Amino acid sequence: MKKIGIIALALFMQHISAQNNRFVYQVTMKPDAENKSDIKTENAYLDISAEKSIFYSENRYKRDSTLQKAFQGGGGRGSINREQLEAFRSNINYSIEKDKSTQKMSYKDRIGRDIYVYEEDRPLNWKMSSETTKIGEYKVQKATTDFGGRKWTAWFTTDLPYQDGPYKFNGLPGLIVKVEDDKGEYSFDLMKNYKIAEIPALNQFGNVLKVKRSDYVKQQEKYKKDPMSFMQNTGGGGGFPAPPRASGGGGGNQNPADMRKRMEERAKEEAKRNSNPIELP
Description:
By secondary structure, the protein is α+β, with helices and mostly antiparallel strands. It has helices at 2-18, 58-72, 82-87, 213-225, 227-233, 256-273; strands at residues 20-29, 40-48, 52-57, 95-99, 104-111, 114-119, 127-135, 138-147, 150-157, 175-181, 186-196, 208-210. The protein is globular.
């Protein structure tokens, strides 16, 4: 009977791991260092398959789907609903992929026109606690770690057989249900989960550049200091991209100088809004 039980458990675990599961986290952020009362909240997905997991913004997925439908419909840029895209703006512009076979973690983020990819080179060193509680329907256990300049407290459950979690957090004996930093500036809370047919492929607009993490940090700082010079001097076809043509024959072309100015102001405002990033220097 004991052998039968072990075999049944093994088959159950194999069945579970063969399915694609989506875990929806509510992400709460205070990204503006000068305005901590400005709290941003949005949902993010942790999609897990037998081979890998991917963490990314729900709004990113909706934005990608909207763009893909517009281009597949043959309408091109002129058919894109700009107001709808604005509604899908996200503070989570990165995606994180964890490969189960290699145990490697890849971080992807856009800087200017290009996608920068680096392999995370810092291990998570968890300190386990015997403290337990209940969050929703799950019995959870406490663990703590220092990562990215912050002290984090995680609550994980062995009820869900995944050694994974939101953002870069993983490596505990179960799925992370909640994780937050000690300053209360970033938190990830599991809201729900369900099966999905497959993990969607995220669209990558622009060149994909594989770099070291230290190089990514340097490029990010360059962009924050002078976004226009950065975009003119990096890849993606040389200088500044040509202004888009107005659709429907009305309005004419945008003035390149005016467009540059607007883009520069927007990039600087974005840098200010993200002056308190999840990972501190």
